[in-house]
Each structure stands twice: as C-alpha cells, then as structure tokens.
Amino acid sequence: MTGKAPKAATIKDIARLAGVTNITVSRTFTAPEKVRPETRERILAAARQLNYVPNAFARSIKSSRSRIIGVVTDDTFNMVYAHIIKALCRLADARGYSVMIFTTNGNRQTEARALSTLVSYKAAGIVLSVVEDSERYDTSHIDVVLNSGTPLIQLDRQFDSRLPAVFLNNSRAGELVAEAVNRKGYRNILVVGGNEHSHITQHRIAGIRSGLGPEVNVRYFYSDYRYENAKAMLQSWFSTVNEHYDCIVGLNGMITLAAVHVALRWDFQDLGFISIDEVPCAEDYRVLIPHIWHDNNQWAKLVSENMFAAIERQPFEARVMINGFLKNV
C-alpha cells in the first residue's frame, strides 16, 4: 500500500468510456436538457462507474454562473416555506440545478453570511425571505446580491416593494379573519402577531380592524412568527395576565400552533381559534380550525417558475400577490 489517494476521474475519462466527445460530457453536467436522454444516461452511468464528482466551484470559475440556486429563509420549520423549498428542489433537479438552503433563525449576520456565500459561489439565483420585513431593518448587506446582478425573488417577507416577489394579500387575509370572528359571534379575542414592526403583521391587523365593530373587544399581543419563540412568549404572557378570551387569532400557522399548545397546557375551556394559514397537521387529526387558506401549491409553483424565468432571462410577472379563502368556518 502506498497510501496515495486514487487519481480522480476526469471528463476525458468519462468521454472515453461512454464513447462521446468531451464537449458532450461537459454539456451533460452544465446543460443536461441539451443532451439526448439516451446519451445523457450513458454518460451518467460512466460517471458513476468512475466515481466522478463534478467540481462545481471550478465550473463556476469558467462560467458566469454556477448551477446552484440559493434559498435563504428565517425558518424552514414553517410548513409553507418547506412546501415551497420542496417544489423548488424538484424543479431544480429536473433542470440540472442544485438547491443550497440557509436557515437564518432570525439573525441578520447569518443572513448576511449566507448571501455573501451564495454570491461567492456565483449562484444562478436566490430566493430570499428576509429576517424582518420592517422599516427599521438594515438591509445594506443585501446590496452584495443586487450589485452582483444575481436574480433575486423575494418570498413572503419583502424588503423592497420594487423587486420581484411572491407574497400574500395580507390586508385581505385580515379582513377574512374579521369575517370569521363575526360569523362565529366572538366578542373577546386575542390577536397574536409577529414582530410589532413587521409590515405583514401591520397589514393583517389593519384588515382585522377594518372588519370588526365596537362590540368586539380586541387585545393585541406581538410575539414571533417562529413556533418555539411564539410558544415561549405566549407561555410567559399567560403566566402574568388573568384575562379570558373566547378566541385566539394567530397571524400565521406557527403562531396558532403555539397558541393551541399553550391553551392545552393551561387547560383553557371553551376557547376558539382562528388562523391565517392552516395549522400544521391539524386536519390530519380531524381538528378543524377555522383559517385563511392559501394554496401552497400555487405559491410553490409561482416561486419556482419565476426563479427559473429570471435565471433564463425569460419574461415573467415580477410581483405576484396571492389571495386566501376562508376554510372550516
């Protein structure tokens, strides 16, 4: 034994084994849709036989873009984001791209590092849901993406209303919550939102306010859109106040899930729930919580198709707003 690592296979080795040209092999890994399926499969089989792994970094140096698509999001535990990422991965794989996922956990520095990393890798495009969608949030670190010319699609949370985005009609969602409250006859409700400065929170609350009369007593509590944080904050809230509500409104599915958890722990009786977005897995257990339903398949399709349209410089509707509908009321 010499202790030396075996020599890595090259494109030339694959071409020789598959009986094709070097260019055809290279095209299989950089633009697979341009290679006939039977030829592509023969090349991939040869690559597997030789244990060949394409050098993505080297490819990106030679070309203006890599075959990487970046997703930077606050919380992949959010069922909506997970659904969109899954659809994007499926479409990316079909087109010969790989998806690199970063979870920021509400940390601006983590978001900045993720974006810088993707730009350094010459990512073909980036889907971004910023840490915070508010006027106070410093977005100067996103300039590295904008200045690089990397295609960017904003997901849900926006930092610039002029840039491409796929987002919800948050005011309308709030109006539908008010309709559900009125139809249920609730008179004393607690609305639990995300960050107080969040545009999404503000627009949803504005929609709720516009549809409720003075006979409905509303208390607002600002928490966090992430499940664990919202759960801890609600637990602390109910340990210090002695108030009775007949309904808790969660401004997203994660918040409502956290509210259900806390309510069960405190053994609250005769308490209803209304949610913007469905509560994860609730209907699997036949728990039919009234909510504003948004089509996750539509959302995922729009984000994925718009991302590839931007990468391929094809025309697309840059700013798409998705409307929701009442369900289980």
Features of the shown structure:
17% strand, 12 helices, alpha/beta, 329 residues, Rossmann fold, six-stranded parallel beta sheet
Secondary structure blueprint with pairings:
Layout: H1 11-18, H2 22-30, H3 37-49, H4 56-62, E1 68-73, H5 79-94, E2 98-103, H6 108-120, E3 125-128, H7 143-148, E4 152-155, E5 165-168, H8 170-184, E6 188-193, H9 199-211, E7 217-222, H10 227-240, E8 247-250, H11 253-266, E9 272-276, E10 291-293, H12 296-311, E11 319-322, E12 325-327
Parallel strand pairs: 1-2, 1-3, 3-4, 4-5, 5-11, 6-7, 6-8, 8-9, 9-10
Antiparallel strand pairs: 10-12
Span between termini: 72 Å
Order of strands, main sheet, comes to 2-1-3-4-5-11
**SSE run:** HHHHEHEHEHEEHEHEHEHEEHEE
Shape: elongated
- The helicity comes to 40-55%
CATH-assigned homologous superfamily of the largest domain: Response regulator
Name the CATH architecture of the largest domain: 3-Layer(aba) Sandwich
Q: What would the CATH topology of the largest domain be?
A: Rossmann fold
Low-confidence stretches: none
Quickly give the structural class.
alpha/beta
Structural Rg: 24 Å
CATH class of the largest domain: Alpha Beta
Q: Estimate nothing, just give the exact number of structural domains.
A: 3
* Annotation field: number of helices: 12
Report the count of strand segments: 12
Largest sheet: 6 strands, parallel
Keywords: DNA-binding, Repressor, Transcription, Transcription regulation
InterPro entries: HTH_LacI, Lambda_DNA-bd_dom_sf, Peripla_BP/Lac1_sug-bd_dom, Peripla_BP_I
GO molecular function: DNA-binding transcription factor activity; transcription cis-regulatory region binding
Organism: Jejubacter calystegiae
